[in-house]
Structures are given as structure tokens and as C-alpha cells.
Design goal:
single chain, alpha+beta, 3 domains, 5-stranded mixed sheet, two-stranded antiparallel ribbon, 7 strands
Length: 410
């Protein structure tokens, strides 16, 4: 409708210029008052249509009504200026073609029938177009020149409108395809979530049993006499507690209401906690970190965000056992968390499909970390980026909006 309004403004300007040039420039006698009156009525109707553009919806039949208005205005103008002998009668084709693009089949046939009836009426009845005698000896036939101008106008208007409509349709198709892709990804997330919740319930009992056994072993006199074994059991007990905490987080996340308002947490606290947990993990790859911001920026307190960052760190550690880096900075009101490694980097095909489900070089069933990180970032209004570094290795970056709500740990 917005593009129809723009085309109608072109029609208003074109009709007004044609009338004035023909009457005052070429000396063709025209009924100026009714013809300019039709132009003004068309302009007024266009202003009313512009007022409807504030809505996000159209009344059924509104586009058909707009095209019928253009057909009616053109019919009256042609009736007053020679009818079917007027070279601009081919402008009917513009309305018919637009109807083919925009209207359902029944409405198109109705519009076509009305346009054909109007053209037939103009053959039978119209006011004559009287050319002044001085144009008889003109080097260029005025009617032929008018036919060429009419042809050029039809061609240009159709190209302008159809290319814009085609661009809109392509954008709509791309949007629908993106929605389909997201639906498929979210279906995968739902399936993984159901599996994770079920696994968490089942893991609770064996983890509790293991915790009891390890605790009993640590108190056993024979094991207490072996410092090395006692130290390893302490590590095992800590790892079991960590697993129990992960299981508790899964069950807690699964039980949260979907409409629950999300709080915010300081970025420094979130990343410091991740660094501390990483360094406390036995056998962890060395982690270098650097944070750059002023004040106390906060980010959405989404439990999955911590898991996403951890998954990216583990991915980097697998390909870069000599060390990885965690950098955080704030720029243009957005938080950028970068994880760098010194591995072999990404292949071009991987970069093109970064963050897609099961897209990994490690074989079937892998690639969940990057996929979950991408979806967490998108859910929070951000994105996941990846690129190869010039000096070798790769960098994966979470770009997230800063939280505007109150800061807090929950």
C-alpha cells in the first residue's frame, strides 16, 4: 500500500504536468476545471490512504479499492480528453499488472473486467480531443509522441514497482526461511533439554552414592595412611560435588517459569567466577584473562550464559593445550567476550556454518557447545562471531547487550 501511494503521487504529478503542457504549451483545448479537479480529488484520496499506513494491517479489499480508484480517475481524465484516441489509454495496463501482483485471482479478474469495460466505454463515448491547426505541420506527430511517452511511462512505472515488490518478497522468503531454521534449532534444543532433564534425574542417585563411598574411603585408616590416595580422593569428592551442582542447575533451569523476569549480574563477577572455577579444575589448560571496562557493567543473569562461556573455553582448550585466553570489553554499549586459542583455526566451511547444530570436525554428536552458545547469545539479543587470527589460531566472540535493569547476583 505504501508503494501504491508513492505511485499515485507520481500519477498526480504526471497528470497535472500533462494537462498544463497540453493546454498552455501545445494549445490543445481541454476542460481544465474538471480535469484539475480530478487530480485534486486523487491527491486528497492519496492523503487519506497515507493516514492508513500507520496501521500494521489492511482492511480486506483495501488494495482492490485503491486500484479501482486509479482506474476510475484515469477513465474520467481520458473521457474528458479524447477517450480511446488519447495515447495515454495504455496506462490501464499499469493497474492490471499491479492487480496481478497484489490481488487474489477473483479480485484480479474483477479489476481486469472493469478496466476492459472502461476502455470499451471510451471507444463509444468521449469528448473529442481537438488539436490546434498549428500542430498539423509539426515535424513530430503529437499523437505518436504521446504514444511513445505513454509506453515509456508504463515501462518505467512497472519496473519501479515490480522490482520493489520482488525485493519485498525475497526479504519475506528469507525471513520465513530464517524462522524455519530457528524452529528446527529450537526443536533440537527442546529435545536436548528433555534428555538433559531426564538424565539429571537419573544421575542424582548414583552421584549421591559415589559421594558417600568417597567420603567413607577418605575416613578409612588404610587410605588415610596413604597421602597420595587421600589427596586424589579429595579431588574426586570435589568433582562429584561439582557434578551434583551441575545436575541441580539443570533441574532448576528446567523448573523455571518461561515468563519469569530475568535479573542482571555484574560482568566482572560472572567472569571472575568462571576464571576461578577454571583455574581450580585439576589439569586445566592455562587460562590468560584480561577485562577492559569502566564502571560496573551488568549482563542478563541467565544461567545458560555461564554454561555457554564454559563450553567455548572447553572447545578452545581441546585444540590449544598450551594455553587459551579470555578477554572481556565493553564497546558501543555491548559486551564482547572473546575466547582465543592457538590451534589450527576454522575451515572456511565451518566459519560459514558456525553455531549450527552438530557442526563440528570431531564427528557425529559433537558441536553442541558452539550451537548452545549461539542460541544463548541470540536469546539474549546478541550474536556469536568466529574468525581466524592472522598469527594463528581462532577467536570466538559473544556479543551481548548490556543489562539495563538492577544489578544483582540472581
Amino acid at each position: 500500500m505504501r508503494q501504491l501511494v508513492q505511485l499515485r503521487w507520481l500519477a498526480v504529478a504526471g497528470q497535472l504536468i500533462a494537462i498544463l503542457v497540453a493546454h498552455f504549451g501545445l494549445g490543445v483545448t481541454l476542460p481544465l476545471v474538471p480535469m484539475i479537479g480530478i487530480v485534486m480529488l486523487l491527491a486528497l484520496a492519496n492523503l487519506l490512504f497515507m493516514a492508513t499506513l500507520r496501521r500494521s494491517w489492511l482492511v480486506p479489499g483495501e488494495v482492490l479499492l485503491a486500484l479501482l480508484l486509479d482506474v476510475a480517475a484515469l477513465t474520467v481524465q481520458l473521457y474528458l480528453s479524447g477517450g480511446a484516441t488519447n495515447p495515454f489509454i495504455s496506462l490501464y495496463l499499469v493497474q492490471v499488472v499491479l492487480g496481478i501482483i497484489l490481488l487474489p485471482a477473483v479480485a484480479v479478474w474483477l479489476l481486469t473486467a472493469i478496466a476492459c469495460l472502461c476502455a470499451a466505454f471510451l471507444i463509444v463515448d468521449h469528448l473529442p480531443l481537438v488539436l490546434p491547426p498549428r500542430l498539423d505541420g509539426a515535424p513530430v506527430d503529437v499523437l505518436l509522441a504521446g504514444q511513445w511517452i505513454s509506453f515509456a511511462m508504463v515501462a518505467v512505472l512497472l519496473v519501479l514497482f515490480i522490482t520493489r515488490i520482488s525485493r519485498n518478497l525475497r526479504a519475506r522468503d528469507a525471513y520465513v526461511a530464517e524462522l524455519g531454521q530457528r524452529a528446527a534449532e529450537e526443536d533440537g534444543i527442546v529435545r536436548m533439554g528433555l534428555f538433559a532433564s531426564g538424565a539429571a534425574h537419573e544421575l542424582g542417585t548414583p552421584l549421591s552414592s559415589l559421594a558417600v563411598l568417597v567420603s567413607d574411603w577418605r575416613r578409612h585408616p588404610a587410605i588415610g595412611a596413604e597421602p597420595d590416595i587421600h589427596e586424589e580422593l579429595e579431588v574426586a569428592e570435589a568433582e562429584i560435588e561439582r557434578c551434583k551442582q551441575i545436575v541441580s542447575n539443570i533441574l532448576h533451569s528446567a523448573g523455571q517459569a518461561r515468563g519469569e523476569a530475568m535479573g542482571s549480574t555484574p560482568v566482572q563477577t560472572l567472569l571472575d567466577r568462571i576464571v576461578a572455577e577454571w583455574n581450580a579444575h585439576p589439569g586445566a589448560v592455562p587460562l590468560r584473562h584480561a577485562f577492559d571496562w569502566t564502571g560496573t557493567p551488568t549482563v542478563a543473569a541467565e544461567p545458560a550464559l555461564r554454561q555457554a562461556i564454559w563450553a567455548l573455553l572447553e572447545n578452545a582448550a581441546e585444540v590449544s593445550p598450551e594455553g587459551i585466553s579470555l578477554d572481556g570489553r565493553v564497546a558501543d554499549g555491548r559486551l564482547m567476550i572473546s575466547i582465543e586459542d592457538q590451534g589450527r583455526g576454522f575451515a572456511d566451511a565451518q566459519l560459514a556454518r558456525i553455531g549450527q547444530l552438530y557442526e563440528s570436525t570431531k564427528g557425529p554428536g559433537h558441536g553442541l557447545g558452539m550451537f548452545l552458545a549461539s542460541n544463548v547469545a541470540r536469546r539474549l539479543g546478541g550474536r556469536l562471531e568466529a574468525e581466524n587470527r592472522a598469527e594463528g589460531g581462532a577467536v570466538v566472540r559473544l556479543v551481548l547487550p548490556l543489562a539495563t535493569g538492577p544489578s544483582g547476583e540472581g
